[in-house]
Design a protein that fits this description.
With 709 residues, the chain is of the alpha+beta class. It is built from 28 helices and 26 strands. A hairpin with a 2-residue loop joins strand 20 and strand 21.
Length: 709
């Protein structure tokens, strides 16, 4: 009992002074300041009347955790050197209200657009302390004769004279002075904890906030690892990283994934339980942070390009990032062909066995051992993984739900084949915001449910929402073009406008000429498509011993345009006008020159901005020699014309097949001297910046070329 903290008291001036000096701090793990003016006015009214307002619980320590840097436009100073800081564990809303009222601050709360002006809290001079039920401290709109509370709190002799000149009567000024004295002499109850370890402080905070905010493990670790000298703020760094994830459509990743990876690579036990994570050393976390972030990025790139999972919403579990990131951390390189197959097996067996639905931490510790085997070139065994899909019939009986890991696994398989829209044959663009709910228009029932309910048998109706009946299409197509029509009807409509409809359907693992589609036979369709989907599953969970074939061109295109990659639909054929447009040839030359003046790169002609294969047919049709040889001769002439013959060794043409169409891959090497685009006697200098080709002025060119050539 001797360790029990003793209550103390502080005056209003003491509290405000300690906040202003940087001694009292509000930790960032506290919830946002949410009290409105009336709540703050009620608090100050209670103080004026001498009512108890609860105890402030402070944690005094020489440690530094992340705290709120600004209240109401007032930049709070750092804690003085040599002084311990006191963090508010209980009473944050109250102490922030007191500070805002004292300053007469203007605060914009996170959930509001308007600014709250604390000078609008006033003291009603028509009321008096004897009438306890009436509020003396209130908001401006509820009083006629008043003075701003800010003036009362800061009242002194000089202000008394100023108030007299402003027309206040002597009794009113005496009343204001008495109120000011009541505020200044009020004894605020405080309890200060002096255990120096953050775990004790967090435990106290958690216990006293049982009805409010419970800290997540990430918030605890963010507080524990904050290091101002090292400029390390885990929460701020994770938020910055999440913005980068938004660009790759993987913004739904939980920070728990980060903590699990850190624990698995730092802890001696190779575990990621809560207790193990809490015991991690701050210095070790800071030292491994960049490596772990890089490993997560490599994993997401692997998921997007190798597994072709374009968005995080259909990822069965974001926990799947952990074993893959562990692989990249341990090896420092991409997996070999055979390792890819084994990692893919781990991915699909984990997803189809609902592996991470419970006891995630202990299962991850076991799965990391399987990754160690894969790194060693061995195929792990999976006796403890019980698959929930063991036949085509199991698939047919799986009801579609966006929250189900098995359904997400099937969506990943569908996404792998890069489904095309039925009407345009363009690649279906998936977005996380559209994929969160099962009623999203991105999810199309190939046999519309309304059609099955109306025309199907009693035995067929329960299967209308089977995962086997789901296809991924654009929202606009589903909403306006299909509705409740039979497949044979709406497909006939699309056949008139899309000559490649058969190819589009095959990207959904559906055959246009199949009898079940032609005759609108729902039962036969389910049987046929479930067998195709199950065959896709077997390919993934039973990898062949032959090394996996890698298609680097496909992967490069899937990664999308960037600093080293550019897509052009055509070389000279204008798809908007249907005619030759030689300005497009000029644009291609600019792109190649920009790559030469930067770090080299790849230009793909015959691929549109979304990664859809256009092919070379449209361009070839505009040439006198309408084949690949004619195309090659023409593009060589373009480069000679705009860039000169002396750079011909810096570009090379390849002719890969992408999505069943031949395209042109222009490989560009970095130049050892400036390359200019010459047009109509004018020289232009282009470089790659932020994923695009940009012109530079002479001065900018000079700066760019410093030490480069």
């Amino acid at each position: 009992m001797n360790n029990q903290p003793k209550p103390d008291s502080k005056t209003y001036d003491d509290l405000i002074s300690d906040v202003k000096k940087g001694i009292i701090k509000v930790p960032k793990f506290q919830r946002d300041f949410v009290w409105d003016l009336k709540a703050t006015a009620k608090l100050l009214d209670s103080i004026l009347k001498g009512y108890p307002i609860g105890t402030f619980i402070l944690w005094e320590t020489d440690q530094r955790i992340n705290d709120i840097k600004n209240i109401g436009g007032f930049d709070l100073p750092e804690t003085p050197i040599g002084r311990n800081v006191q963090y508010v564990l209980d009473g944050q809303q109250r102490i922030t209200s007191l500070f805002a009222a004292y300053l007469g601050a203007q605060i914009r709360k996170p959930t509001e657009k308007k600014v709250t002006d604390y000078k609008d809290i006033v003291v009603n001079l028509e009321e008096n302390l004897e009438e306890k039920e009436k509020d003396i401290v209130t908001v401006k709109d509820e009083a006629e004769i008043f003075i701003p509370l800010h003036d009362v709190l800061n009242f002194d002799y000089q202000m008394g004279n100023e108030l007299e000149q402003r027309g206040f009567e002597k009794p009113q000024i005496n009343q204001i002075s008495a109120y000011s004295s009541a505020f200044k002499t009020y004894a605020f109850s405080t309890v200060t904890l002096r255990q120096n370890d953050i775990e004790s402080a967090i435990e106290v905070f958690t216990r006293i906030n049982t009805g409010g905010k419970v800290l997540t493990l990430f918030e605890i670790m963010s507080a524990k690892t904050y290091d101002e000298a090292a400029d390390f703020d885990m929460q701020a760094r994770w938020e910055k990283f999440q913005k980068r994830l938004n660009d790759s459509k993987y913004e739904n990743i939980s920070p728990s994934v980060l903590l699990q990876i850190l624990s698995l690579v730092i802890s001696e036990s190779k575990e990621c339980k809560r207790k193990t994570i809490l015991g991690l050393d701050k210095a070790d976390i800071i030292a491994r942070w960049d490596d772990v972030i890089s490993a997560i990025e490599k994993t997401i790139d692997h998921f997007r390009t190798v597994l072709r999972i374009p968005v995080s919403q259909i990822l069965p579990y974001d926990t799947l990032i952990v074993p893959f990131a562990y692989f990249f951390l341990k090896t420092g390189k991409s997996p070999s062909g055979q390792q890819r197959k084994y990692l893919e097996e781990l991915f699909w067996r984990s997803s189809l066995s609902l592996r991470y639905s419970s006891a995630t931490e202990s299962k991850l510790a076991a799965d990391i051992k399987k990754v160690d085997l894969i790194i060693a070139g061995q195929r792990p065994a999976y006796p403890e993984f019980k698959l929930f899909i063991n036949s085509a019939q199991d698939l047919r009986e799986t009801d579609f739900s966006t929250g189900n890991a098995i359904c997400k696994s099937i969506l990943c398989i569908l996404a792998y084949h890069e489904p095309k829209d039925f009407d345009t044959n363009g690649k279906v663009l998936l977005d996380n915001s559209y994929l969160k709910i099962a009623s999203s228009k991105n999810y199309h029932h190939f046999f519309p449910r309304a059609f099955v309910r109306k025309h199907g048998s009693d035995a067929e109706t329960p299967y209308a929402n089977s995962i086997v009946n789901i296809t991924l299409v654009s929202a606009e197509l589903n909403k306006k073009r299909i509705g409740a029509k039979a497949p044979s009807v709406y497909l006939a409509d699309f056949a008139d406008e899309n000559s490649e409809l058969k190819h589009a359907l095959s990207s959904h693992l559906i055959e246009l000429d199949d009898a079940s589609v032609v005759q609108d036979d729902f039962t036969a369709f389910l049987k046929r498509r479930s067998e195709v989907l199950y065959a896709e599953i077997l390919k993934r969970i039973e990898p062949s011993e032959a090394a996996a074939q890698i298609d680097p061109i496909h992967e490069m295109i899937l990664e999308g345009e960037g600093q080293l990659v550019e897509f052009k639909s055509t070389l000279r054929y204008d798809m908007r006008t249907g005619e030759v447009n030689k300005k497009l040839e000029h644009v291609v030359a600019k792109t190649v020159a920009a790559f030469m003046n930067s770090d080299g790169g790849s230009l793909f002609i015959g691929v549109d901005d979304h990664g859809n294969a256009i092919g070379l047919e449209l361009d070839c049709g505009t040439l006198s020699k309408k084949d690949r040889d004619g195309f090659q001769l023409h593009i060589a002439n373009i480069f000679d014309k705009f860039l000169g013959k002396d750079v011909m060794k810096l570009w090379k043409l390849n002719w890969p097949t992408y999505d069943d169409k031949q395209i042109c891959h222009v490989e560009v090497t970095r130049a050892n001297k400036p390359v200019y685009v010459i047009s109509e006697g004018k020289e232009e200098f282009f470089v790659r910046k932020e994923g695009s080709s940009q012109p530079l002025s002479r001065a900018e060119e000079h700066e760019w070329n410093k030490g480069r050539f």
